[in-house]
């Protein structure tokens, strides 16, 4: 009897599959990151994707975009715990560092990569599941660490060959300086309450700093005249900031001072920074971070300073595509095995396993769909060609009977071929590898 066709189940809106060949490009990118992190002595940390909701509420601050409206939170059906899919990973790293007493023998340099979840309106460069790579240096208070993290990100852009990325810096000062500035801001905006929009009014007493971030053109004149944080920042903070910029200058890193840069989260103090491009539309921030000397204590640890950044992988990747950076990972096989007759498969598979053991990427022909048999020699060779492989290993009947196979070049135009002994695969494997590039 004919069954009705089942309805398709689709992916969740804003959560995307990453398919080949894009996935190979991402693997290549991740390889670069691992190598670079090792050169700066940052070590990998992996924390769970699900955390207690309280971690983010306390860590990021109650009146932030993320906590107010972007978190995927749910109650555990079995024990009623309040849980959240991580919207970012700094809070999780800090929790793990505190929980495992990682700072007992000094500061730690850590990095992570992985998926984050935010319930936002999906658009270019903004997804509900996206990926971040982040670097965090915990337990260090010196300005040289702030600079080190910025140099690290900058080195990545250079190695990837990315251009037109601006670095913007600001200093937020310390909590007492911010408290004084905050009081002045509230007094100032109260005086101009008639021009504030709904969002600004709501934030006036909870997070007035965020009003400075507003894109509402009607409020710009009032925002421009608001008390400036830099007039409240004390000498120690200015000295800290000065050393950060001196290190950047010494290394020829361009930067600009952006007094409006406050970042979305509550936990920052002193140095904050963003790497921005104008080539990605309105989602132009590819990496952002800063110092968060009070977060560790907030999460219940012994007070210790820290600084870090997070980059949006999708945005960096889109910029790579936009600027047509070549060299994205390629995972084509080196060799494609043509097996005309199914009875050869067991013996052929032994040869292919030996080749793979010697580092050769081998794809064996397998007929697609429900067709019977292995398919004609001609159709198999067509597949071999389409696979991108440089060589075909052909298990022809005559050769097979002699204990050999043919290795045929697919790319030299003449189709040169050699006969090789099946028993000696490890000896001729190296001829299938591409010439070493040194
Ligand atoms: P934005 O202002 O664009 O919303 P944000 O301040 O919320 O960014 P952070 O929390 O600082 O972003 O996250 C660090 C980086 O992660 C961002 O600079 C961006 O590159 C990336 N990112 C943030 N949210 C998303 C998202 N929804 N989709 C893709 N990338 C994102
Ligand atoms: Mg955001």
Automatic annotation (TrEMBL):
Q: Which keywords fit this entry according to its UniProt record? A: Aminoacyl-tRNA synthetase, ATP-binding, Cytoplasm, Ligase, Nucleotide-binding, Protein biosynthesis
Name the Pfam families for this protein.
tRNA-synt_His
Reaction(s) catalysed by this chain's protein: tRNA(His) + L-histidine + ATP = L-histidyl-tRNA(His) + AMP + diphosphate + H(+)
Q: Which GO terms describe its molecular function?
A: ATP binding; histidine-tRNA ligase activity
Which residues make up the binding site for L-histidine?
A: 88-90, 118, 132, 136, 263, 267-268
Q: What Gene Ontology cellular-component terms does the record carry?
A: cytoplasm
One GO term under biological process is: histidyl-tRNA aminoacylation
Compartment list: Cytoplasm
The residues covered by the Aminoacyl-transfer RNA synthetases class-II family profile domain are 33-340
Q: Which SUPFAM superfamilies match?
A: Class II aaRS ABD-related, Class II aaRS and biotin synthetases
The record's annotation in CDD domains points to: HisRS-like_core
* Family under the similarity heading: Belongs to the class-II aminoacyl-tRNA synthetase family.
- PANTHER family per record: HISTIDINE--TRNA LIGASE, MITOCHONDRIAL-RELATED, HISTIDYL-TRNA SYNTHETASE
Q: How does it assemble?
A: Homodimer.
Q: Which HAMAP family match?
A: His_tRNA_synth (MF_00127)
Q: What is this protein called?
A: Histidine--tRNA ligase
In its UniProt entry, the species of origin is given as Simplicispira hankyongi
């Amino acid at each position: 009897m004919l069954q009705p066709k089942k309805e398709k189940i689709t992916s969740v809106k804003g959560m995307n599959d990453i398919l080949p060949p894009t996935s190979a490009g991402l693997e290549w990118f991740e390889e670069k990151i691992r190598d670079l992190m090792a050169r700066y002595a940052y070590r990998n940390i992996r924390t769970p994707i699900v955390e207690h909701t309280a971690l983010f509420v306390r860590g990021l601050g109650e009146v932030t975009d993320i906590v107010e409206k972007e978190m995927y939170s749910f109650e555990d059906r079995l024990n009623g715990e309040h849980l959240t899919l991580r919207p970012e990973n700094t809070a999780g790293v800090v929790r793990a560092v505190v929980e495992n007493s990682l700072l007992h023998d000094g500061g730690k340099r850590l990095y992570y990569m992985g998926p984050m979840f935010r319930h936002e309106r999906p658009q270019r460069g903004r997804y509900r599941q996206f990926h971040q790579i982040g670097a965090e240096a915990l337990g260090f208070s010196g300005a040289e660490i702030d600079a080190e993290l910025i140099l690290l990100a900058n080195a990545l852009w250079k190695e990837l060959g990315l251009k037109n990325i601006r670095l913007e810096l600001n200093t937020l000062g310390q909590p007492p300086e911010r408290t004084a500035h905050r009081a002045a801001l509230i007094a100032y905006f109260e005086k101009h309450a008639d021009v504030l929009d709904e969002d600004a009014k709501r934030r006036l007493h909870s997070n007035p700093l965020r009003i400075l971030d507003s894109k509402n053109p009607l409020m710009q004149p009032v925002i421009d005249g608001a008390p400036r944080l830099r007039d409240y920042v004390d000498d120690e903070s200015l000295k800290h900031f000065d050393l950060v910029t001196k290190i950047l200058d010494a290394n020829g890193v361009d930067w600009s001072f952006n007094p409006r840069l406050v970042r979305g989260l509550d936990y920052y103090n002193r140095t904050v920074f963003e790497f921005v491009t104008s080539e990605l539309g309105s989602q132009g921030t590819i990496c952002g971070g800063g110092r968060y000397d009070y977060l560790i204590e907030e999460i219940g640890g012994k007070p210790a300073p820290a600084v870090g950044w997070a980059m949006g992988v999708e945005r960096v990747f889109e910029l790579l595509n936009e600027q047509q950076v070549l060299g994205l990972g390629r995972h084509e096989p080196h060799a494609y095995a043509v097996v005309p007759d199914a009875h050869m498969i067991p013996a052929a598979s032994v040869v292919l396993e030996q080749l793979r053991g010697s580092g050769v990427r081998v794809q064996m022909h397998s007929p697609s769909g429900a067709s019977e048999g292995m398919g004609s020699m001609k159709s198999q060779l067509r597949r071999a060609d389409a696979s991108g492989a440089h060589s075909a290993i052909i298990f022809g009947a005559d050769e097979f009977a002699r204990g050999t196979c043919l290795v045929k070049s697919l790319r030299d135009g003449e189709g040169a071929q050699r006969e090789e002994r099946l028993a000696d695969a490890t000896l001729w494997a190296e001829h299938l590898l591409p010439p070493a590039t040194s």
